[in-house]
Every structure is written in C-alpha cells, then in structure tokens.
Fold each of these.
Amino acid sequence: MSGLGGAGGLRVVGASFVVPCPSGVAVRDRLKGLTAQDETVLRLVGDHLGSLASGDLKARCAAGLEHDNEAWASRKRELTGLSSSRWAGSLTKATHDQWALARRGLAAHIRRLEAGVRMIRHRLSLPLGEKGSKRLAGGYRSRREWHAKARRLRVLEDRLAAARADWAAGRVRVVRGGKRLLNTRHHLEQARLTEERWRARWEASRRFLQADGESGKRYGNETIRVGPDGQVSIKLPAPLAHLANTAHGRYVLTARIAFAHRGETWRDRVGANRAVAYRIHEDVQRNRWYLTASWTLPPAQTVPLTAVRAGGLIGVDTNADLPHARLRSRGGTPTAAWRLDQHGNPVGAPRRFDYTLSGTADHRDAQVRHALTRLLHWATRHGLAIAVEDLDFTAETTREKHGRRKKFRQLISGMPVARLRARLVSMAAELGIPLVAVDPAYTSKWGAQHWQKPLTSTTRKTTRHDAAAVAIGRRALGHPIRRRTAPPRTHQSDGYGHRTVQARPETPGREETRPRIPGPRTRSVPPGRGANAGNQNTQHRPGRSAEQGFWQQDSLPLSL
C-alpha cells in the first residue's frame, strides 16, 4: 500500500528492523474419552468459579482508577475462602487482564472517534464538489450529503465526549462471555439458534477453568496438574471438595492428553517442573472439551540486521490490489515473494502463495497457515531471511476517511494483517528464520514504477505484487528502491572525449598488442597461423603497406 504523507510532500520512511521472537507459546489438545461424571464435575467447577469471576470483575470495575494493592489483597482473601488460594490468584489475575484489555479498547475507540471528527470537520469546511487528492479527501458531493455529515458530526462529538469522560473516570464496559453472544439472544432466528442452544453456549463461555503455572511445583502447576503421561487432575474448590475421587481434594479425569504439536517441548518443561498454565473449555457446537497449555519463552537475542542482510533475503508482499478485490466472492488473496541477493538484484523467478478467506474461521486460519508453511519451507531451503511490511490498518478503515470508496474499505478490512503477522512471527521463530519488518510507504507504487516493466519478458509477466516484493526486499537490504539509472546519451559515447574508466591518449601502452596466451585455442585457426593482431601491415589503415596491394583500386583520373 502506498504511504500517506502530509501536505508538505512524501512522508519520512522508517528504518527497517528485525522482528523480535514471540514471548509465549500456546498448544491445544482435545480431552477424549471423558465420562458423563467427568463432564458434570467440569461444568460444576467451571460454573462455580465463573460466578466468582463475575463478582470479582464487578468489584474491579467499580474501583476504577482508585484500585491499589490493598484492594487487590482484600479481593483475593475473600475469594480464597470460597475456592482456594491458587484459584483466587488465577481469578484476580484474569480480572486485571480483562480490565486492562477493556481499557486499551476504550483508548482505541477514542482514537477512531477523533479521526472521524477531524475528517468530517475538514470536509465540511471545503466547498461542495471540490475534488480531493490521494492524501486528503475533498468536499462532499451534494448539499444533502453535507447536511447528513453535519448531523453525524454532532453524533460523533457526543460519543467522543462520553468516551473521554469514561476514560477520565476509569469506567470500562465488559461483558463476560462476549457482547456479540449477548446480543445474539435478541436475534435467535437470524442466528439460527434455539434458546436452549444459545443458553448452552452462553454458560460455556462464562465458565472459568484456567490456572496459572508455578515454577518449582510438581509438573509446573498445582491447580490443574498434567503429568508427562497425560493424566489430568484438578484441585477442587472448597465447596465442591466432596466430588474428589483421589486424595487431597483432587479429581482425576479419565481422558489423557498427548500434544501433537510441541509435545516434546511441553514434556521437557513438565519433567523439569517449570511453570505451565492450563485452560479447559467446552466447544458446545462440536460437543467437545479442549485443554490449552501455555508458557512463556525466555527472551532470545535478536540477530543483527547486518548479519541478516549478508546473504540476501526474500521479499514478501501480502497486499491485495483492487483488481483482486473483485474476486472476493472466491476469496482469493495473493502473496507474492521474490528472492534477492545481497546487492538487491532479483534472483530466479517470483513465487506465489495464494490463500482463500472464505468459509469458517478455522478454515480461513488453516489456509493462512498453509500458505505461510510453503513460504517458510522455501526460505529454509535457501537459508534466507524474510522481509515483510509492518502494516497497521487500525486507523485506515473508517468510512469518514475514504468516503464512498466502499471497495477500498472492504479491501483493507478484509486483509488478515494481525493474523498473518502473528502466525508468521510464531512459525518463523520455530524454524529459526529471521524476519525483517520494513516501512510500507510507497512500496507498491515505486515497485511498479521501477521494477515491473524491466522484469517483464516474453515468457514472464511480472505483476504489481511481484514488483512490490522486490521493493520490499531492497528496502530491507538497505538499498534504494529505484534502479540504477543509465547515464545521458552523450556520456554513453565519446562525445566529450574518453570516459574516466578508459585509458587516456597519453597513457603508455594503450595501443600495444595483446599478450599471447599459450595453449590450445577454441578457434579454428591454430596458434601461430593467420593474421597477427600486432602486425599493423595486415590492418586496413592509411599509410600502411597493405593499401598498396594489387587489389587496390586506382584513383579515377580527373580529366582525359
């Protein structure tokens, strides 16, 4: 995507950097073979802890900005008597994380409202019908649209004032279970759900069955313990201790866990009693139970950018242009990649890794993961790093900025930027492939301007995506996107004398013969035979004896 600059000209392009490795890992496996008693116990424990989590979240939201460590300790003591000390710690930590997430969401909402108000005010100040530019929108097309936007400005200003008041007071609005699922209760027919099915999904989303890990404890977690053999046991809360089927108030599930992905890493952590957090949840639609294990990774030392650039890299363009946006019914999204050497020259042919964004969320995620897997395997074969754009469209999808350009707004909103970035960083770190993030300003525009035509031949049609991949790779390597320009026509010849790289007329030896190289030659004339380059008599030059041969034509007489 082309970068957006101010009225003064092009914006400053940011420096490239190596993307740091992820700080945590999460793996999931299905709890197979659960008995009816196991499911009953899990639902009872989850409902009881979920009610405690709801009350604790209500108390945290009521405290607002006045919350301190004393209030945290008081809440934890109250929850300890109703569950256990470790369950209370997990509950309060989850409450703080949820409150902080809502706080960040409110800040993002305020930024979007400010951007909308600023854009509407600018467009209202312009005359009707005034054309805009690529960097800034113009005036509204009609008086009717101007009046409608003036009314919308007042609505956005009221919303902005209310949001700023909530921010100053520390108020957040949180729904345990999700606001979308809550609103679905009033639209069951459109969602094709019955009240019983909706109630089951609502209760499952509000259950609380997650525990933080503890290093040094047995298998890294005392609350939800999973051994190396896959046996899962849960520490029951105090009111439900009578449901225990083993000693010390614990309940052992019938199902066993065997993580297919990162299983060896997980077993190493569990065997060393290192902290592992667990979460158990029910998928009502599939009628399945899952267990998710997560742990933090130690900070890894980032590879220097100079070392990444030493052997070249692969430039990747993940944007979708407007012609491809017309194919959104099929969901096709191109990902172009081109290998570059350390000097910024394209090597070989470009590669395409397309994926579809149709179907369910799991299907879309699988398509993205499959495309990234093929890309990473290609980079692994050549031992190269990958250069991608540091895209962020959080403030670029508003209708106030792009007006009636609905296709462009849908294009930007449909690009899975966050999903691609998270997946690519995690998968590349697993394979040890460095990632270089570059500024996305003008990569598509300048790539098409300087590289699309030169890289197009009779047997290869270079697209705009391929040229953008070359531009991204050159920027990551520290080279300018523009190709080296040819010198002027007079400088391509000897119009002003010899070039500086040629020998001057006074240079000794500039007209000497070439040195003879002994040995066999590939030409048909054997060595020592034929015309010698050093024999100037064999050359057709003025003043040489070769011009006086019998074959030389006599000059015509001027008169009889």
Note: Residues 30 and 480 are 50 Å apart (CA to CA).
Amino acid sequence: MSAEPDGPEDRLRRFATIWSRAVFPVTSTSSTRPEFEAQLLPLARRLSEVLRARIFDAAEARDVGAALVDAHCTDPDALSRTLDCVDAYLVLYCGEDGDPEDLRARSARLQHAMAAGFAGALRARTLAEQEAIAQAALKAQGVVAEALHASEARFRAVFEGAAIGIGIADLDGNVLQVNEALMRMFGIADPLLGGRRATEWTHPDDAPQTWRLYEELVRGEREHYHVEKAFYRPDGTVLWTNLTVSLLRDADGTPQYQLALMEDTTERRLLNLRLRYEATHDALTGLPNRSFFFERLEKALNAGPDQRFGLCYLDLDGFKTVNDSLGHAAGDRLLVEVADRLQACATAPGEMIARLGGDEFVALTTGPDTRHEVDELAVRIMNALLAPVSVDGRELTVRGSIGIVEGPAGERSPAEVLRSADITMYRAKSAGGNRFELADPEADARVITRHGLTTALPAALERGEFFIEYQPLVHLGDGSVRGAEALVRWLHPQHGVLGPDRFIPLAEHTGLIVPLGRWVLEQSVRQARLWRERYGEGGAAGPLRINVNLSPCQLTHPGLVQDTVEILERAGVTPDALCLEVTESALIGADDDLLKPLRRLAEMGVDIALDDFGTGYSNLANLRRLPVSVLKLDRSFTQSMQQFPADPVDLKIVEGIVALAHSLDLAVTVEGVETGAQAEQLRILGCDTAQGWYYARPGPPERLHELALVDATG
C-alpha cells in the first residue's frame, strides 16, 4: 500500500502525476510521460492557487486551459480527460482546510473557465492555421497559373500531389477536373463529380455573401474570395470546408477558369461545437451554465422597449444537510433530478433554465408580457419540487426558495437583475423558505445599504470615523451625576451620523465588534481618567464611573480580561472606574466557562451591569450565580410612569424587582427616564440611578462637564 502524500507540494505532485497519466496517451507530443508531467506541474500549481484564492480568478483558469493547447493537448479526449481529472482529484489533493461545498463550487467554475480557455486557444490556433492555408492557397494559385501557362507536367504534379482538395471549373460553373484529395473529401470516385455545376452546391448554412462573391469572381470583378462553406456528400452527410476560389486568366489576362481549393474542417468544427457546448453548459446537469445564462439575459435586457423579462432565482432549502449527511455524490444525484424537473418546467417559447452553481438555479422567460408568465413559471417550479426524490434508497424531500424579478427590458444590467433576484430569494428563505417572493426595490436598497455598511466598517475604524457620545447616570436620591454610559456613533461619509443599531449587528456578524469594542473601551477609560483628574477620586459630583457595553461576541473572546487589564493600566485608572454592561439575553443559560471572564473582572473591582433586565426569560433565582453588581431595568417597565397616576401593576413589578435586587446587594439603574414625574416615582420605589432624556441626551464629554458643574454648584 502506498503512503498518502505528506504535504501540500506532495499532494500537488500526486495530482500532476494523475493528470499526466490520464492525458498523455491522447497527446501529440515527442516528450516522455515524466517530461510531460513536468510540463503539467506548474499548470497544476496554478489550478491549486485558483481553487484556494480568496477571490476566484476565472482568467487564470482560462489561461491554464489555453496552456493545454500550447502543450499539444488538442485531441478532444485531452480536454474531457482533463476536466474529469480536475473534477475528481483537484479538491481532494489541493483543497485542504477549505469548505468542501465552496471548493466543489469553485472546482465546477474552474472547469468551465478551463474549457472556455481551451476552446479560445484552439480557435485562435485554428484561425492561424487557416491563415497559413490561405497563404498557401494563394501561392498554389500562382503555381497553378504558371503551370497552366508554362508546363502541363508541372501543373499535373502540383494538382495530383496536393494535400488539399483542388477543383477546376469553367466560368459557367461546369466542373472540369478535381484531384484525388477532393474526391476523398466528398467520398466519390468520379473526377467530374457526376457532371454537376458549381452553382448546384448550395447548402442552407451558406453565408449570405457566398454566392454574391462567386458572381463577382466569374464576372472578373475580383480575383479570389475565401469563405467557410458546407457541402452535402452523396450519402447525405455534411462536409464543412475552408473554401478559397480564385480566378485564372489566360496569357492575355482574359478570365478563363475558376480554381477551388478546399480544406476539410468537419472534425475541427465538430470539436469546436463540442467545446462550445462544454464551455456553456453545466458538466453535472447538462443545463446552461452561468456564462451562457448571462448571454441570454443580456440579450433579453437589450431586446427593445416593447419587451419584458421575468426571472426566477431558485435556491434549494437545506441542501447542505444532504451533502453533509449523505455525501456529495448523493447531493449531485439530487441536483441532477432537480435539474431534470426544472427543465420540464420550461414549456413556453423564450423560457430557459440554467444552473448558476451549487444548488442555485435560474429560470428566465421573455416576451411582451411576462407579468403573469413569471408567476406561473414559479408555481410550476414549486409544484415540480413537491414529489420526493429517491437517492440511494432514501426518499428526500426537496424544497426551494425563489426570488422573482420582472420588468421592462433596457432599464437594468444583468448584474443588477441577478443581484435583486438573489436578495429577494434570501428574503423568501428568511421568511421560512419553500415559497417565492417578488422583488421590492425598497427592500433591495436596504440590503444593498447594509452590505455597503458592512464592507465599509473595517476602513471606517482605520480612518477614525467612529466617535463616542456620553449619557449621564444620575443618582435619584440627591440628583448628582455618578457616571456616564459610552455610546458609540459612526460618522459615515454618505449617510451621516449612524446610531449603534445600524452598525453594531453588522460588526458582530463580521467579527469587527472585537477591535471596535476594544477601541470604545480605550477611549471611554481615557475619558474616565480625565473626569477623575478634574473632579477627584470619589467626589460626590461629577461622572466618576464609565459604563461600556459588552457584546456577546466580546464576552466569548479569549482576550477580554487581558485587554481590559492592559487598557486600565495604560490609562492609569483603577478598576472601580469601569462598569461593563452585558445584556440579559447574552447570559441566558450561561455556563461557568462563559461566566468565568466576568467573575475575574468582578474580582478585580470592575462593576458588571445586567443590561435590559426584564426583556429575556432568565430565572430570577439565577441572579445569585451571576457576577453582577448592577441591574439596568429595561424602559418597558417604566413607560407607564410618565403619566399620573402610574399603572399599579407596573409599580408592583418594579417595586418587587428593586426589593429583590437590593436583597442581593445589587444596585438598580433605570433607562429611558423622560419626565420629572417618572423620575420621582422611581425614586420613591427605591431605584438608585437613572438615565434618559429628562436629564440629558447623549452628547460630547464637554456637555457632561457642564452638567456636573451645575450639580456641584447647585
């Protein structure tokens, strides 16, 4: 038994070996197989880099496909074997430490790009060969003309020995003579081709200018022309040729004959058609692929002012579970069955089904009125997915979410249409899936704005676009300012000042909340030091403590305690100047491992506040095990106290919470205080501190100075 490759380079060389063994037998090269393997190794390395790159580069994969043609891998089987090898082994040997689903999707896109590059390079090579043949034909024309005028024997040698088909006819089109090469091309033995005339060799695929050029030549208005032309053989098959027809004149310059030079391009054309098919169709399902779909979509969007389009963007619900539980082979069989069902849904003219990749499919319909047609198409697709799919003896339920975009041609680009459909599809998926939704421009704009904010977040932190406002914490007993809560804001270049509700969820989703939270903590602790220096340690007035919000992502970050200690030490501030606020929902069901960092901070002297208390479902008895020293009562409990008299039920609830908190040696802070009556009622109920617009809105630190001075002197 052979050992598995040890490292990435070993696995890469193993892939190159498998590739060379598969392709070498059908390659026209004078190299040995080891030498050929050495040629493929750098190409394999480029494929590996494309597969694992952060941003997929289709151009690099196309270059690898073109490089195969340069390595003389021009046989049709060479491409087929290469794509099979890449599909089976590239992810296996070169996709370490990656997401298997993403790698397989990238592998499929990579194969399509390689096929396109191979086809393009082969087409370029073919054109170069055709040009060489055309030049040779012109030279042959001169040689033949000279032979006719000078030496019949020399002409006969050229005529009979030429590798391309040569035929001579008079100006009326009557065939006078053909060589053996041309007879082999047509599969006949009659040198006169049965007495046929050149004008009889028409074919439905003749280019419009073919016979116009012929008429100009026999009238003596042009010396030669070159076209690609098809002929019917006697057995009914089609012969495709590169045809060059030249005018032969006598010694006096009078037109006398026409000379036809033909190269058989039938096999090359079939290969090009096959390559075109492989470059535009999905290898697994046979459906049109992403590139072919974009061609059709662009054509539909440029169809004219009276035309419309409708697009259904389908993503299977829970497909990843199938791959994870049953394997990718079962997932592929499921995709093939789904593709067959979707193809059966495209019943009307102008409808098209394509696979974009993975478990994503699109259906396109075009015409003068697609408003109802696209809805009917979506219904047909949903109905086609109702029946379970049998895979490996299992009945799998298939469901899908569809985003629908419909509208007039000429108003949006293909990328904009597909983006809107994608956004709408995810809206259907977030609503529970197994449904379709219509595109909503306002919803699209919100998602696009959200995405723009997400991508701008890292640079915003580096450019210093964030700033902090402070809202005072006021003691309800004597009205003194005891602290302030730090509230981060984003001064966006386009959208202006954004509150935390606009970007904190995005920062948590992207992980940027950790560096952003560290920056907020640094700035807030530095401000706390300035306040303490101004008002003294432990003064009765002045905001001596700073409250900083801690997100669930920060709570689980391993560097939380160390970062907090370092920030306090650098600022020269004692831990009692800091209070970290953690939402109640973040601590629901928290185990000892999650609470350990908070306990360490609390033991150091940092206060821990339980924020938004009352909005979750935590057991009040759990308060004893939480390392908190402050309860921040959610504003929903105190809104009714803005009016007089207050709701007696709310009064009882708040009174009970305050009593419970004080019995556990916890201070109670109330959020959202907006009226004096509300503040007085909370004071009577025993709440310790409060914050809200009644005292001050969040603002710069200078505003807190002013409030503190008023408190100190008043």
Note: The chain is about 50% helix and 20% strand.
